[in-house]
Amino acid sequence: MIYWDIFSAFFISNLLGYGGGPSTIPLIQKEVVGHYHWMSLEQFGDLFAIANILPGPIATKMAGYIGYQIGGIPGMLIALVATIAPSAIAVIILFSFANRFKNALQVKWMTKSVQPVIAVLLGVLAYQFFLSSYENSGIIHLLILALGSLVALEKFKVHPAFVILFSLLYGGVFLSGVV
Amino acid sequence: MRVLGELCIGFARTGVLGYGGGPATIPLIEYEAVKKYGWMNEEEFGETLALANTLPGPIATKMAAYVGYKVKGTTGSLVAILSHIIPSLFGMLMLLGVLYSYRSSPYISGMINGVTPVVGVLLGVLAYRFLDKAKKGMGLKWMIVSVLGCLVVIETLHVHPGIVIVLFLLVAFTMATYRNKSNRDSVKKVTEKKREGA
Fold first, then answer.
1. Are B128 and B66 contained in the same domain?
2. In the predicted model, what is the mean pLDDT of residues A16-26?
3. In this structure, are B96 and B124 located in the same domain?
4. Contacts with A19 from chain B: Cβ below 8 Å
5. Residue A112 pLDDT level (bands cut at 50, 70, 90)
6. Does the residue B106 lie in any domain?
7. Where among B44, B72, B101 does a domain terminate?
8. Closest among A7, A1, A9, A68 to A36, alpha carbons compared
9. Which of A113, A165, B51, B98 shows the smallest number of beta carbons within 10 Å?
10. Does A138 touch chain B (CB under 8 A)?
11. Contact predicate A3/A74, CB 8 Å
C-alpha cells in the first residue's frame, strides 16, 4: 500500500529527527532513496537544492514534493500530515504537561545525544554527493564548485540561494558538454 | 474571522520571506506573533520555542501549530500551518516541474551536475554544525567516541539509523536518571552526616 509507505517513511523520519528540519533530511533520504527506492540519490540532491533556493521550511517542502511525485495529491497530503501532524499535535497537547519536564536532565541529555548521529548521517550524505559529482563531472569541476561554494557560504556569507543559482549557471555552461 | 485572516497573512509572510529553512524563520515568526499581532508575549514565545525544541520534527510548523492553536483553536492551528507551507510548496512543484520537463536537455543535466557539489557542501556545513553542537554538549572526547561508533555501526554494519537514534536516546535517558539519583543520594548523605555531627 503506497500511501501507508509514504506515511510511515515520513512519520519515522520526523519522529527520530531531533533538532528541527535539517536533522530529518538524512533520515528522509534513508527512507526515500535507501529503503523504498522512490528516487535516486541525484534526484534527492536536486530536490534539496531547489528546496534551498525557495523560502519556507525545507523538510516540509521536500516531503510535499516527494509525496506528490509518488502518490499525486493524496500522496502529498499524506506526506505533509505525517511530517507535521505528530509533532504539532504533541506540542499542543504536551504544552502544560511537558513544561514541567522541559528542564529535566533526561530531556536535555536525550536531545544532545542525537546530535552526533545526525552529524554522521549528514556527513555521509555529503560524501555521497561529492562522490557522485566526482564520477559525473570529474575532480577539477568538483573542486572548483565545492571549494568556491564553501568559501562563498562560510567566509563571505553569501546567501545559499545565490550560491545554488550560480552553480546551476556554471553547470549549464561548463558541464553540459555543449561548450 | 479577522483573527484567522491575520494568522493567514502573518504565517504566509513568514513562509515566503523566511529563507534558509525552518530554524531561520523563527525570528520572523516571533516578530509576527509578538510584535506585530500580539498573539502572545515574548516570554511565552520563548517558552513555546524551548518546549518545541525538545520534541522531534520540523520546528517552524510546530511553532505555527501552537501559535495558531492558542489564537483560534484547531482551526487557527490548521490555518497557520497551511499558510506557512503552501506558497513555497507550490513554488517547489512549479520549479521542479519546469526543470524536469527539460530533463533531456544537456543544459539541464549540466545544471544538475553543477549543483551536486554545492548540495554536498551545504550538507557538510550542516554536519559540521551538528558536530560542533555535540562537542559543546558532551565534550570532545565523547563526541569523537560516539561519532566513530555511529560511523562503524551505520556504515559498515548497516544498522538502520533509527535504531541507533533510539539506542542513543535510551542511553542518555538512563544515564541522566542515574546521575539524578546519585546526586540525590549524595545530597542525602551530606545532610545525614550533618545531622550526625550535630
1. no
2. 84
3. no
4. 130, 133
5. confident
6. no
7. B101
8. A9
9. B98
10. no
11. yes
Which of B79, B101, B123 marks a domain boundary? Answer: B101
For cell 563531472, the residue is A137
Mapped onto helix, strand or coil, the DSSP state of residue B184 is helix
Which residues of chain B are within 8 Å of residue A160 when distances are taken between CB atoms? 19-20, 122
Task: Tell me whether residue B189 is in a domain.
Answer: yes
Residue A62 banded pLDDT, cuts 50, 70, 90: very high
Instruction: Mark whether B140 and B54 lie in a shared domain.
Output: no
In a shared domain, residues B121 and B86: no
Listed by start position, the domains of chain A span: 2-174
Quick one: average pLDDT of B97-113? 85
**Chain centre distance of CA A73:** 21
pLDDT (tens digit per residue) in A27-49: 999 999 999 999 999 999 999 99
Residue B168 to residue B164: CA distance in whole angstroms: 6
Same domain? B97 vs B119 = no
Taking one residue from A and the other from B, the number of pairs with CB-CB distance under 8 angstroms is 361
B67 with B16, same domain?
yes
pLDDT digits (tens, 9 = 90+) for B40-62: 998 888 888 888 877 888 889 99
CA-nearest residue of chain A to B130? A119
Q: Give yes or no: residues B124 and B75 share one domain.
A: no
CA dihedral defined by A59, A64, A65, A68, rounded to 10 degrees? 160
Q: pLDDT tens digits for A128-149?
A: 889 999 998 999 999 999 999 9
- The percent of residues above 70 in pLDDT, for chain B, comes to 97
Domain boundaries, position B35:
2-101
For B98, residues 6+ apart whose C-beta sits below 8 A from its C-beta are none
The answer to whether B143 faces chain A, any CB pair under 8 Å, is yes
Classify residue B107: in a domain, yes or no: no
Beta carbons of B84 and A48 less than 8 Å apart: no
In sequence order, which residues have a C-beta less than 8 Å from that of residue A103 and are 6 or more positions away?
Answer: none
Q: Which residue has the higher pLDDT, A103 or B26?
A: B26
Q: Which chain B residues touch A53 with a CB distance below 8 Å?
A: 95
Q: Are residues B77 and B12 in the same domain?
A: yes
B26 close contact with A: CB closer than 8 A: no
